[in-house]
Amino acid sequence: MRVHRYLLKTGISRTPEFERKGLATHAVNVGTKCGHDCLYCSTGAVLRMHPSFRDCGENPFAFGYAIVDPNTPERVAKDAARIQERGLVQLCTLTDAWAPEAQEHRLGRRCLEGILRQPGWMVRILTKNAAVLEDFDVIERYRDRVLVGLSITGTPDQEEALNVIEPHASPVRERMGALREAHARGLRTYGMLCPILPGIAADANQVDELVQFVCECEAEEIFAEPVNPQGRGLILMEEALAERGYCGPTLAVAAARRQIHWSRYVASLIGHVQSSVRRFHDIKKLRFLLYPSRLRNEDLATIRRDDAGVVWLGKKG
After folding, report:
1. Does residue 102 belong to any structural domain of this protein?
2. I need a labelling partner for 221 at 20 to 30 A (CA). Which of 7, 99, 186, 210 fits?
């Protein structure tokens, strides 16, 4: 993993898109490329024009490197004191403050401390790394103002396939263990089932297992979403899974590359998630994040007939 240090300009910024999703009013990011290297990641597409890629000599759509700013916590602390209109900060929205290159500089911990020292702020943690456990002592001091979430993208029986797709993230069992520990310590938790991948976590039994797990951790909300069909993410997943011999997931991901199958997968997935949340939790706590532009009319109509918990996003939302 090539790790580049790059000085960014922002600390805490407003995030209208994540506010529409119901996730946060403000965002913090500790770099522009995360070392977890998840094959479906869309951050490169979102930030492709950022000068950090050109200055570091890297392709925003490539893998095997990270771009991180070790000075982020200082800017975050200044912004936390300066900004008068305070709200809920997501740490992070585009990169991961507990990825390996961020851990080296204790960025997650230092950002948490910089924000929470100032009254009026809340923090939503989102990470794919169980290293967040090491900072539970900080969170315990501000337990009413922090929501802990680890992205759970599949069930433990699919861990080997997930390790191909999310090569440098913590194994899903470790992420689940970290969320269980947060609950055991009395910390506030939420469920982040994002993305729920075709062939790996999208059938009814797998969805039930994921929803039951976050309910056991007393998740205050449950966020879910399908995999993004745009860009090369599905192609990269299909190639990597096929190379390692995961036939079932390979076929499901390959099918999802076609609009008709992706649309059906999304409509089916929403139905499974709604059914599971209704049985094990409260449908009012579901936030299924949906950009409907690639849905076929018949699937869109099916979803609209019962869109409980669906957060409609994008121009067609």
Report:
1. yes
2. 99
In a domain, 317, yes or no: no
Total count of domains within the chain: 1
Answer yes or no: is 95 within a domain. Answer: yes
- CATH code of 146's domain: 3.20.20
Written as six digits, the tokens of 67 are 């771009």
pLDDT, one tens digit per residue, over 192-229 is 999 999 999 999 999 999 999 999 999 999 999 999 99
Whole-angstrom Cα distance, residue 159 to residue 27? Answer: 30
Identify the domain containing residue 83 by its residue range. Answer: 2-312
Read off the tokens for 60: 């925003």
What token pair was written down for 301?
């109509």
Confirm whether 175 is domain-assigned: yes
Q: If we measure between CA atoms, which residue out of 118, 178, 133 comes closest to residue 151?
A: 178
Q: How confident is the model over 28-43, as pLDDT tens digits?
A: 999 999 999 999 999 9
**pLDDT of 148-177, one tens digit each?**
999 999 999 999 999 999 999 999 999 999
Nearest to 215 by CA among 282, 311, 143: 282
- Report residue 182 as tokens: 């947060």
Residue with tokens 């390959």: 254
